[in-house]
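Session log. Operator J.P. requested a structure for one protein chain; no other inputs attached. Running the standard single-chain path with C-alpha coordinate output.
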Amino acid sequence: MNNAVTLVTGIEYKVRRLTGKCGILKAENQRLTEEVNALKNRIETLEASLNELQEKLTVLKLAKSLNREESRTNVKLKINELVREIDHCIGLLNK
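Structure written below.
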Protein backbone atom coordinates (compact mmCIF):
# COMPACT_ATOMS: atom_id res chain seq x y z
CA MET A 1 0.00 0.00 0.00
CA ASN A 2 2.78 2.37 0.95
CA ASN A 3 4.54 1.51 -2.25
CA ALA A 4 1.45 2.42 -4.35
CA VAL A 5 1.11 5.77 -2.56
CA THR A 6 4.76 6.51 -3.28
CA LEU A 7 4.24 5.68 -6.97
CA VAL A 8 1.12 7.86 -7.22
CA THR A 9 2.91 10.74 -5.48
CA GLY A 10 5.86 10.37 -7.84
CA ILE A 11 3.56 10.36 -10.86
CA GLU A 12 1.69 13.44 -9.58
CA TYR A 13 4.99 15.26 -9.09
CA LYS A 14 6.16 14.37 -12.60
CA VAL A 15 2.81 15.44 -14.10
CA ARG A 16 3.03 18.83 -12.32
CA ARG A 17 6.58 19.27 -13.54
CA LEU A 18 5.58 18.40 -17.11
CA THR A 19 2.60 20.75 -16.91
CA GLY A 20 4.87 23.56 -15.75
CA LYS A 21 7.36 22.85 -18.53
CA CYS A 22 4.51 22.76 -21.03
CA GLY A 23 3.36 26.21 -19.91
CA ILE A 24 6.89 27.57 -20.14
CA LEU A 25 7.35 26.09 -23.62
CA LYS A 26 4.01 27.49 -24.79
CA ALA A 27 5.01 30.96 -23.59
CA GLU A 28 8.40 30.67 -25.30
CA ASN A 29 6.74 29.43 -28.48
CA GLN A 30 4.38 32.42 -28.43
CA ARG A 31 7.30 34.80 -27.89
CA LEU A 32 9.28 33.23 -30.73
CA THR A 33 6.27 33.35 -33.05
CA GLU A 34 5.85 37.06 -32.33
CA GLU A 35 9.56 37.60 -32.91
CA VAL A 36 9.37 35.77 -36.26
CA ASN A 37 6.43 37.92 -37.33
CA ALA A 38 8.25 41.09 -36.30
CA LEU A 39 11.33 40.01 -38.25
CA LYS A 40 9.21 39.20 -41.32
CA ASN A 41 7.72 42.69 -41.16
CA ARG A 42 11.21 44.16 -40.81
CA ILE A 43 12.39 42.17 -43.85
CA GLU A 44 9.45 43.43 -45.92
CA THR A 45 10.20 47.01 -44.88
CA LEU A 46 13.88 46.64 -45.71
CA GLU A 47 13.12 45.01 -49.07
CA ALA A 48 10.79 47.87 -49.98
CA SER A 49 13.46 50.36 -48.96
CA LEU A 50 16.06 48.46 -50.97
CA ASN A 51 13.86 48.48 -54.08
CA GLU A 52 13.26 52.20 -53.70
CA LEU A 53 16.98 52.88 -53.31
CA GLN A 54 17.80 50.71 -56.32
CA GLU A 55 15.34 52.70 -58.43
CA LYS A 56 16.90 55.95 -57.23
CA LEU A 57 20.35 54.60 -58.04
CA THR A 58 19.25 53.71 -61.56
CA VAL A 59 17.83 57.19 -62.06
CA LEU A 60 21.00 58.79 -60.71
CA LYS A 61 23.21 56.66 -62.96
CA LEU A 62 21.11 57.62 -65.96
CA ALA A 63 21.19 61.30 -65.04
CA LYS A 64 24.92 61.15 -64.47
CA SER A 65 25.53 59.47 -67.80
CA LEU A 66 23.47 62.12 -69.59
CA ASN A 67 25.50 64.88 -67.95
CA ARG A 68 28.79 63.63 -69.30
CA GLU A 69 30.10 65.53 -72.30
CA GLU A 70 31.12 62.33 -74.09
CA SER A 71 27.62 60.97 -73.84
CA ARG A 72 26.19 64.19 -75.23
CA THR A 73 28.43 64.07 -78.28
CA ASN A 74 27.62 60.38 -78.82
CA VAL A 75 23.91 61.10 -78.54
CA LYS A 76 24.21 64.02 -80.96
CA LEU A 77 26.13 61.87 -83.44
CA LYS A 78 23.54 59.11 -83.20
CA ILE A 79 20.70 61.60 -83.72
CA ASN A 80 22.47 63.09 -86.75
CA GLU A 81 23.01 59.61 -88.15
CA LEU A 82 19.33 58.76 -87.71
CA VAL A 83 18.26 62.04 -89.33
CA ARG A 84 20.50 61.34 -92.36
CA GLU A 85 19.04 57.83 -92.64
CA ILE A 86 15.48 59.22 -92.46
CA ASP A 87 16.32 61.84 -95.12
CA HIS A 88 17.75 59.09 -97.33
CA CYS A 89 14.56 57.00 -96.92
CA ILE A 90 12.37 60.03 -97.75
CA GLY A 91 14.50 60.66 -100.81
CA LEU A 92 14.03 57.06 -101.97
CA LEU A 93 10.26 57.33 -101.43
CA ASN A 94 10.06 60.53 -103.49
CA LYS A 95 11.69 58.92 -106.57
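Operator note: The mean pLDDT is 87.
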